Structures are given as structure tokens and as C-alpha cells.
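User: Predict the structure for this protein chain, please.
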Amino acid sequence: MPKTEHILLESDVRQVPDLRDARTVHARLEFRSRLRRCLLQLEIIDYYYLSVRSRSRNKLREYVLDLRFADAPRSLRHISWRWITFSLVFIVLALGIASRIDPSATASWQRHWLSVCIFVIVWAFATLVAVYRTTEKVSLLSTHGAARLLECTGGLGTFRVFRSFMVKLAAHIRLAAGARRCTKTEHLRDEMREHLRLKEIGVLSAGEYEKAKVRILGQHTSGEQPAVARGPTRMAIG
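Assistant: Here is the predicted structure, written as C-alpha cells:
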């Protein structure tokens, strides 16, 4: 018999809206990266939800996030200092060799210019890699499960594109936080169920779900009833 676990999931009248349903759009963002061949469309809908449409390398994903269970958006910039250093070293070497070339010495002139061309080609390659690996990343994690709900990686300028939308998203996350359940235990149960929903629609992998579940269960204090095998309503999770 397969192993199952029983987690108390109390009913909640609020339903996550479908992408095709009529809704109110409070903010919209479209981000496209031709270098990484990805497209991301975000919409804040019905105050408490974020609709996500992403296409990367011909893979399309569409889902809706409940902002009651989302933490404030995060941003991270990674600068590829190693490749930038390589690029600077090669261009300095090329310029140094070029400055020593004596046009009157034909054989030496040809040999040195060949070296200059090689250094310039390597410099161009290192520069392209440095540009590609210098990234700005915007991510959204769940509040207690710390699961990755959304992540977008782009080049320099990504933060500028996202700036105004992230301000509105943070405001709606704070608004949604006011609509959470009255007690922490009830909210943690709801968040557990939200992670299960995201796992079932393919947003979270099985491994990400299990790690988030452990984190959420760890938030229960000893004075509160843990969300396991208690109460009249249970859902079996395989």
C-alpha cells in the first residue's frame, strides 16, 4: 500500500480565479529577453492574485498565484567580475602589442598583427560572456514555505523594467496579508493547501513541495495543534 499522509485542510470559500474568467486588472507587465529567448507576462488581478504567463524555449506556463501566501518580491544582481576582468586583460594585451608594432618590419608586422587579431577575438568572446552572465533576477517566494513561486532572470535593465510593477505588487501583497485567516495555525493550513495546488498544476516540483511542507510544519509552535491528522476533514496526499 502506498504511503500517504493526512493533513488537515479546512474549507475556505475563496477560490483562485481562472485566467479565462472576467476580472479586474490592477497592473500589467510584459518582459521580453531576446538574448535568453523568454517572455513573461504578469497581471495583478482581483486585488489578491497574480496571473503569470511565461514562455521560455517554446515552453509555455500559465498559472495564478494567491498573494496571501507570497512574500515581498526580491531582487538580486549578479555581476560577472571574472569575465569582465578577462575582457579587460585581453583588450589591454591587444592594445599593448599594437603599440609596439613596427610597420617597417614586414615579417614582424604580420606576426604581431595576427596576435592582435587573436586577442581581439578572445576579448570579444569574453565581453559577450560577461554581458550574458551579468544578470538581474526578480523572484517571489512563499511566506513560510520559502518555495520559489516566480523567478525572472534578465540582463542589465531588468530592474528598471520591473520597478514600478514591483512597487504595486508589494502593495497588493500587503493588502492580501490583511485578508489572511485570523490565527497563524489556520493561515499555515491554508498555505499548505496552496503549495499542494501549485504542485498539482506543475508550478512546484515534488522536491520543492516537500521542502516547503517541512518549513511550514516547522512554523507551528508547541502550543498550537499541528496540522496533521486532527479534525473532521482530511485530504490524502500521495
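The two ends are 11 Å apart (CA to CA).
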